[in-house]
Amino acid sequence: MTATVDEPTLTTLEERARAGTGTFGEDHLIVCDSLVRIYQSEGVEVQALQGLDLLVEQGELVAIVGASGSGKSTLLSVLSGLDVPTAGRVRVGDWDLMAMSARQRVDYRRSMVGFVWQQTARNLVPYLTSTENVAFPLALAGIRRRDRARRAAELLDVLGVGYCADRRPGQMSGGEQQRVAIAVGLANAPQVLFADEPTGELDTATSHDVLEGLRTVNRELGTTVVVVTHDPGVSEHVQRTVAIRDGRTSSEVVRRTQTHDDGTEHVVAEEFAVLDRAGRVQLPQEYRETLELAGRVRLALEESHVSVWPDRPRPAAAPAPAAPAPTAPAAVAPAEDPGAAPTPAAPRAPRQAAPTAGPDDAEETR
Ligand SMILES: Nc1ncnc2c1ncn2[C@@H]1O[C@H](COP(=O)(O)OP(=O)(O)OP(=O)(O)O)[C@@H](O)[C@H]1O
Ligand SMILES: [Mg+2]
């Protein structure tokens, strides 16, 4: 008698697929799930976002960093409702950004999110004072004149630019203008504020004031803030810095406050690689170069981590490779392991024949 194998029906497969994706980021305010954005220009395809995953919790202050052209502005355009991705899933609060009508898109942009752009001139109307600039979106929303003035004064105060209330943009420094611009972005009390390179045209000291302004807004008003920046000092101002590389999130720096035995508090910044939902992780370029990792690599499952080995035969009598340079560990420790040291212990020889991973397999090599 032949054994019967239970073939899954189409319905079962659909249910399984829904169960698998339905929960990703369920309790987060912002969910980007495998976002793809392809631009077509003059017959050439540019993949600005290549399956990007990102989760942001309500009340977080997150910085997005990455090389020019990595997809940061594309991501912010999508999140702010200006652009629609080619594929994937994107949700902010209750708003499904893939399925909004034109009218809902306008509502979303007026009520749910605020923006600050890099160009100071794009944020403020040049012939209006700071108070009038903040009051302008409130007037569009039908708020009474007296309430508009009160709200404008409150916001300018929170951002430390109350003294600029009666000045026009031309009478303020770049940093003051950007802090007024943050107040404008917050006029309608959005849940999320997006800022694309708000410090791009500013010097270091002034950038510091603007980033601190965003931090104050996050802390005092509870607004969730996502800020794109080139500013290398940004991770000092935020809890989480997400790096984007080639249209995907590649690594994160998380800052935590640790209390030592003597009661003193220290801020510790730890860098993590991001393991995406398909199991891919991007190895930093310096690691790949130091160990000449390219094409195929061997993976080995160790007790507490996974090690990545170059695909080179080792001399028969040679011992296992020596410990890598401090900057070039080739092992990926689980992020949730609180004891995970930034530099893992020397890799041991794989315990058994390790699987071979090609670029399209479990390992990402670019
Ligand atoms: N409207 C467009 N048409 C065609 N290609 C585009 C368009 N907008 C962006 N791109 C391309 O998409 C990629 C990502 O661009 P994006 O502006 O998101 O990068 P970025 O990370 O913000 O860079 P920067 O730091 O220079 O602002 C780039 O290769 C860019 O040339
Ligand atoms: Mg940009």
UniProtKB/TrEMBL annotation:
Cleaved signal peptide residues: none
Domain ABC transporter: 30-271
Record field: compositional bias (Pro residues): 316-327
GO molecular function, one term: ATP binding
Top-rank taxon: Bacteria
PANTHER family, per database record: ABC TRANSPORTER RELATED, IMPORT ATP-BINDING PROTEIN
Name of the protein in question: ABC transporter ATP-binding protein
Native source organism of the sequence: Cellulomonas alba
Taxonomic lineage: Bacteria, Bacillati, Actinomycetota, Actinomycetes, Micrococcales
